[in-house]
Write a structure and sequence with these properties.
six-stranded mixed β-sheet; disordered N terminus; alpha+beta; four-stranded antiparallel β-sheet; 10 helices; Alpha-Beta Plaits; Aminopeptidase; elongated; about 25% strand
Length: about 400
């Protein structure tokens, strides 16, 4: 996608926004750990402003979503309002070579370094810092704040949050997902589905190989077939040039099996993923692979061992995201973001946007920072991008989303 340059924004970030980023970075909310420290801090900050927050915990009680309507009368805004949404979890820092403590914000050369600065505590912090101004402008544009857990792993947080909104009859007019897009409006991203394939064969001494069913070899044949599907899509699928990789992709990322070279392996397990264009169905891609396994491979295996087979289990399953570039929310977001960049684009990484869209909430992905900095050592967000997000919020208040009130 085309990127705006930071020099396009001349204003400096506010002290409140920078201080809030510092505070949130200090919460080590790696996905495998609790996010409650950050969530409870945000709840308390909003409570200080007279705002009630709804917390919904996961089954372990160690993680929670937060949803708050920045209004003195939240029940009045059950229909309408604009959601500002971000995930609180981050990827780990294990094995990465950081120049400073990743969980203490470090300010260097007009940048704030720390895990989550770009992806995506920067956006959350700026939204929290602006909460008093959103409250003051609530008659013009009611704002909802949504904070979720486990976006980097399972997307369980956002799915639970959206289900809770439906149960409580809350129907926002639109949603901005503040992922790092250099403040460019993103209207599409690929979907992602992970699958675990378990191949069960029959053990045998390797001197008697024909009496066994080699699970690794049958897994290898299936992996080769998956590679063939990927090659065909790369060659023949209609291109969508909005994406850096303009076609759907498949790849095998993990495999394990066997116990010794002189034992025909009974078990092999591998994991693969599919990332589909909005025009391509995950189900179509999966169906072709499962069909090949059941039609071609399993009958061969069962001629030797009746209990042999191949099973598939789904993991993360996120639909592709797409909203019409001329939708009212998109046109509004482009107009409001005029201080930094005009235009729309698409990205290959997955976001929570598709979950909100599936729930009938029009959504655009737009936030400060660059995805190129995410997940890396010395991750950072620039002061200019913080200022750009603040400029967006200022224009947002002045030019409310039609239908949000």
């Amino acid at each position: 996608m085309n990127k705006p340059v930071d020099s396009a924004v001349s204003t400096a970030p506010s002290a409140d926004a920078l201080a809030m980023i510092d505070r949130l970075i200090a919460f080590p909310t790696v996905s495998r750990d609790s996010n409650l420290g950050l969530i409870e801090y945000a709840r308390d900050e909003l409570k200080r402003l007279g705002v009630r927050s709804q917390l919904v915990h996961d089954a372990s009680g160690k993680k929670a979503n937060l949803f708050a309507t920045l209004s003195a009368e939240p029940d009045r805004v059950k229909t309408g309002g604009l959601v500002l949404s971000g995930h609180t979890d981050t990827v780990p820092v294990d094995g990465q070579d950081w120049s400073s403590d990743p969980f203490q914000a470090a300010h260097r050369d007009g940048r704030i370094h720390g895990r989550g600065t770009a992806d995506m505590k920067g956006f959350i912090a700026i939204a929290l810092a602006w909460a008093p101004r959103f409250l003051a402008a609530q008659e013009r544009l009611p704002v909802h704040l949504s904070l979720t857990y486990d976006e980097e792993t399972t997307f369980l947080g956002v799915n639970g949050l959206v289900a809770d909104l439906a149960e409580r009859g809350i129907r926002p007019a639109g949603c901005i997902i503040g992922e790092p897009t250099d403040m460019q409006a993103i209207v599409a991203h690929k979907g992602k589905r992970d699958l675990c394939c378990k191949v069960r064969g029959r053990e045998a001494h390797s001197a008697l190989t024909p009496q066994g069913v080699n699970a690794i070899e049958f897994a290898a044949r299936l992996i080769a077939y998956i590679r063939g599907v990927a090659d065909r899509l790369a060659r023949d699928e209609p291109r969508d040039d909005r994406f850096a990789v303009p076609h759907s992709t498949l790849q095998t990322g993990l495999i394990k099996g066997g116990i010794a070279t002189n034992v025909v392996p009974r078990d092999c397990e591998f994991r693969f993923e599919m990332r589909n264009l909005p025009s391509m169905s995950h189900d179509t891609m999966e169906g072709e692979i499962v069909g090949y396994a059941e039609r071609e491979l399993v009958p061969q295996m069962r001629r030797v061992a009746a209990d042999a087979g191949i099973a598939f289990e789904r993991g993360l399953d996120l639909p592709a995201f797409g909203i019409a570039p001329d939708a009212a929310l998109v046109r509004w977001a482009q107009q409001v973001a005029r201080t930094t960049h005009l235009g729309t684009g698409a990205v290959s990484f997955a976001t929570e946007a598709s979950v909100f869209m599936k729930a009938g909430i029009p959504t655009v992905v737009l936030g400060p920072g660059s995805i190129e900095q995410a997940h890396k050592p010395d991750e950072y967000i620039s002061y200019a991008q913080v200022a750009a997000c603040e400029a967006f919020f200022a224009q947002m208040i002045e030019q409310p989303l039609p239908g949000a009130r």
